[in-house]
Every structure is written in structure tokens, then in C-alpha cells.
Task: structure prediction
Amino acid sequence: MPVTPERFVAGMRLHAAGVTIVATSFEGRPFGLTATAVCSVSAEPPQLLVCVHRAAEAHEPIRRGRIFSVNVLAAGQRRLADRFAGRLGPRGAARFEEGRGTRLATGAPVLDGARAVFDCALVTGLEAGTHTIFVGRVEAVLTDPTLAPLIYHEGEYGLVAQLPA
Ligand SMILES: Cc1cc2nc3c(=O)[nH]c(=O)nc-3n(C[C@H](O)[C@H](O)[C@H](O)COP(=O)(O)O)c2cc1C
Result:
């Protein structure tokens, strides 16, 4: 029996995932969206992938500008996650009025206070259903492991709890 979109979503809701903001710059304007569909591809060379809906405002700027950053959010950045998911209203450059940091190697915008930042040059974009899988070559990395991670699970934000050893 074919799997309905609802059944698929019901399963994916049980996949706890770290929350990121994917950000780009095209023709001098920044764009970004909240994304959990982010995955490591290879360490040699350093590559990752992010799945972006073709209707997302940042999709064409990433495809045409060929740069993007993946900002791994800290627990205190839940509001920023809602902002870049379009839940608080602002679109386009207005989303960056909160949280914007310095640029790294590619010129893609980077967010202050992230746990990790991967600054990427686009290698390829593969169409898959409603989304494009963007593969990026990582040109710079920032890390701050002292910050706790922000997790998304069953439609809610959460924290990581350590199991006893
Ligand atoms: C926790 C969370 C995770 C999301 N993950 C993704 C994702 O991986 N890919 C994606 O295309 N949209 C994802 N979204 C939805 C986009 O953030 C949202 O549709 C965004 O506003 C893009 O559309 P817009 O920029 O045109 O408003 C996610 C939203 C939330 C709240």
C-alpha cells in the first residue's frame, strides 16, 4: 500500500533533529530559512547537504548565488528558529535584523551565537520531489561546544539529555 504524506510526516516527526538556519546572499541581499534536513556527506573533502523546498524564498538565491552557510543553533536561539521559519512575520533581509554575525570565506551571511557554522560553496543541486538537495563544499567552520544544542522533535523544540554512562 502506498505511503501517504501524512504517514510519512508522522514517522519523520519521531526523528529528533538539530535545528539549523541556512543562509545565503545573492545580489547583495541576504536570505535564510530554518532547516533540520541537514546531513554530513564526507570529511575528505569536507561536504554536507541540505534539503530546501523549491518554494522557499532562499531556494533560488542559493541555486544562483552558489554559496550558503549552515548555522547550527544553540538552545537559546529558539526564537531565531521561528523567525527564519516564517512564523514571526519577517521575510528576506528583515529576518537578519536579529542575530547577524560576520562573514567567513564565501561571503554567505553567518549568525551570531550559533553552536557551529559551516560556510559552504555549492557543489551541486539535485532535484528530489518538492525539494532540492544542495551539496556544499565546506570552506570554513566555526564551533562553540560550550553552547547546548537546540533540537526539534514531534513539532516541539527540546534539549538534549545525557544518559548516565
Ligand atoms: C524546525 C523546522 C525545520 C524545518 N526544516 C526545513 C528543511 O529542512 N527544509 C525546508 O525546506 N524547510 C524547512 N522548514 C520550513 C522552512 O523553515 C519554512 O518553510 C521557511 O519559512 C521557508 O519558507 P520562506 O523562507 O519562503 O518563508 C523547517 C521549519 C521548521 C520550524
Remarks:
- The first strand starts at residue 17 and ends at 18.
